[in-house]
Amino acid sequence: MRNSNYQNRNRSRNQRFGGNNYEQNNSYNFVQNEKKSGAVYSRIKKGKNEGGTSVNAWRKTKNGLMTANAFPVDGVEHASQDGKISMRYVVEVVNRDMGTTQTYWCLMSKDTKKIFIKELGLVISPNGSGVTRSGKRVTGFFGKVY
Question: What DSSP letter does each residue of 19-85 carry, written as one string?
Fold first, then answer.
């Protein structure tokens, strides 16, 4: 009798009472960060800039949903002094909740496909991936320049 008490004392509580709360103690239920921006790059099929790239981007902010539509102004490539090639784009930024629409002239880097909106300090980039709150997979990034 004395021997069995000694053995019971050294066993864990779960082993003594037959329970297993591994799921409760070691639950790795974490919430994945939801994606708050995205961008879709697509080819222009018709019109003056056929074969060019148009960009549709969205960004969730504390002031509401911000969308951007970017289109090439002309098919001319511009080279900077350091040899980087870029194209002129016009970007229309709409804040849906505030009801404002603004138009900006920007440059898109030909090799990285990033569009910089200098006046707002924002960038639209094809890099970035994640999942929205509704579970939709999204690529691209529309956010602050770091």
Answer: ---HHHHT----PPPPP-EEEEEEE--SSTTTT-EEEEEEEEETTEEEEEEEEEEEEEEEE-TTS-E
